[in-house]
Amino acid sequence: MSAWTNWVGNQSFAPREVIPVADEEEVQDQVARAAAAGRRVRTYGTGHSFTPIVETDVLLDTSSMRGISRVDVERQQVSAGPKTTIRDFGEPLWQHGLALANQGDIDTQAIAGVIATATHGSGRRLGSFSSALAGAKVVDGQGNRIEISTTSQPDLLPALQTSIGLLGIMTEVTISVVPAYELWARTDVMHFDQMIESFESDVEDFRHYGFFWMPTDASARLYNLEGAGADDCVVKRYREVPVGMSREDLGPHERVGRSYEIYPMVYDPNFHEVEYFLPIEDSKEVLRSMRELMLRWLPLSVYPLEIRVVGGEQAWMSPNYERDNLVVSISGQPGTDYWPYLRACDDLFAEFGGRPHWGKLHFMTRERVASLFPRHNDFVSVRRRLDPAGTFLNEHLEALFA
Ligand SMILES: Cc1cc2nc3c(=O)[nH]c(=O)nc-3n(C[C@H](O)[C@H](O)[C@H](O)COP(=O)(O)OP(=O)(O)OC[C@H]3O[C@@H](n4cnc5c(N)ncnc54)[C@H](O)[C@@H]3O)c2cc1C
């Protein structure tokens, strides 16, 4: 069987079988068959995770389970197949006067993948995709069909909201959405000191706040950014504005548009990313320490530092569980031995109780996960209940969640 490779190319494996599945029943059959044969089974979204969280024996391909199945305007909820991409929601929701509450840097991932890993955008008062999950149809480790939602087994919902695919295969998800909105987006280049000065007020004043800091003059180009030299930040500040706001009088660094058109950026697959979430109260200390560390580790640390803020949420295994965070993202350059640099960053994150993004490189052990995530034990209990034979585990996940 040919190898499966993730988007960036740092993870690949050869599954025994790749099986296309078209609906819930086929997923049930395949999970039951794999479990009976003592094989492990998982599925994938669009392979945008950097960690080995897809690897398995039997890989289910849900490509045909894509598309919106129901829009409930009154309850502000939308149901969709697991492979529906973030981009797929934009225009159809807009036609119903609705929109996703938040989005990350790209819109090509599958909805089940972003929910499973707590993929996030920015905003002090906004959670990740996990917090939007209102319910899902799930096939558990024995091939049973279960429904978990705010009304059906609601006690399991915060476990499912960030499940890393460990509780079952989601065959349909229902997410909460918001009334359609436009965004006014301003992007400024400013020196690190200037960013620090306005950091706290900017975080409070804007719906979305984030920036990239450049350790060198060459850094901006690596993330398709422009106009920023060494020690500069490219600061993104977005506000919600009434739909139809005039586009006249916009400055050269300003844009207005439908929310789903404003969020996405363009990345080339030329980086291997690490991302940790640290208590927002420690932001300034973390930012100054990261700047010093990255300057010390040049040229290994040439990629921009990406910073965002995210609000707390209830998903047990989300890094934002009951905590507002400063989100710190760094990258290793493919083709270099970047591990010593990433380890040095991990040491710094550990000092602040940094929690990892499950889709990005990290250095977690089971003990660390248990100490950082207060509901880790509860999550493991639910996992054991829904998947007693460990059909959805793989080597990487077994070490953390068996
Ligand atoms: C260029 C780039 C930009 C990114 N930007 C951001 C960002 O702005 N913010 C952020 O937080 N992250 C970001 N990420 C990380 C990315 O969003 C996450 O890794 C996300 O999980 C990828 O989604 P995917 O659809 O590719 O899922 P995959 O990587 O394919 O899968 C992720 C997990 O979901 C599980 N899964 C998939 N489908 C199902 C299902 N039907 N049922 C149960 N489990 C399932 C898989 O088994 C796996 O464990 C970025 C990554 C890249 C490469």
Please outline the helices and strands.
Blueprint: E1 4-5, E2 12-13, E3 17-20, H1 24-36, E4 41-43, E5 58-61, E6 68-72, E7 77-80, H2 86-95, E8 98-99, H3 111-116, H4 129-132, E9 133-139, E10 145-149, H5 157-160, E11 169-176, E12 178-179, E13 182-191, H6 192-205, E14 208-213, H7 219-222, E15 232-241, E16 254-258, H8 259-262, E17 272-279, H9 283-296, E18 305-310, E19 325-332, H10 339-351, E20 355-356, H11 366-372, H12 376-386, H13 395-401
Parallel strand pairs: 3-5, 4-5
Antiparallel strand pairs: 1-2, 6-7, 7-11, 8-12, 9-10, 9-11, 13-15, 13-16, 14-15, 14-18, 17-19, 17-20, 18-19
Helix pairs in contact: 9-10
The structure holds flavin-adenine dinucleotide.
Description of the molecule:
With 402 residues, the protein is an alpha+beta fold. It has a domain of 182 residues: Alpha-Beta Plaits, CATH 3.30.70.2520. It contains 13 helices and 20 strands. The strands form five sheets. Strands 16-13-15-14-18-19-17-20 form an eight-stranded antiparallel sheet. The longest helix is centred in the middle third of the chain and has 14 residues. It is globular and about 60 Å long. Bound molecules: flavin-adenine dinucleotide (FAD). Flavin-adenine dinucleotide (FAD) binds next to strand 4, helix 3 and strand 11.
Brief write-up:
Helices cover 28% and strands 26% of the residues.
Features:
402 residues, alpha+beta, Alpha-Beta Plaits, 8-stranded antiparallel beta sheet, 5-stranded antiparallel beta sheet, 26% strand, binds flavin-adenine dinucleotide
